[in-house]
Design a protein that fits this description.
The chain is mainly alpha-helical. 62% of the residues lie in helices and 0% in strands. The N and C termini lie far apart (38 Å).
Length: 101
């Protein structure tokens, strides 16, 4: 049985879209990361998809701005990212530590 996840914090629709688009970008960057991949084709496909996901992220941020949501509530959004496994997903973007010979 899976452990129960903490509830997502209350987010505006635009904030939710920012979080979703940001995580999608992270996932794609993790797939592109040359220090963590073995094949070029997967990286190529992820790079092609990155353009659309980055556009989604831009549009979500633009919508927040247009609606007068001029401040980012970083602690709340960070909580949402943690609930949605953002730390693990972001770690795939980093260069892994060296392996010991």
């Amino acid at each position: 049985m899976l452990p129960e996840l903490p509830p997502l914090p209350a987010l505006t629709r635009a904030e939710g879209e920012v979080v979703d688009a940001y995580l999608a970008v992270l996932d794609l960057l993790g797939r592109i990361n040359p220090a963590r991949t073995e094949h070029t084709y997967g990286g190529l496909r992820a790079a092609q998809a990155l353009v659309a996901r980055a556009t989604d992220l831009r549009d979500a941020l633009a919508l927040m701005h247009q609606r007068g949501e001029s401040e980012v509530h970083a602690p709340t959004l960070a909580r949402a990212l943690r609930v949605l496994d953002g730390e693990r997903r972001a770690a795939r973007v980093a260069v892994p530590p060296p392996t010991e010979p």
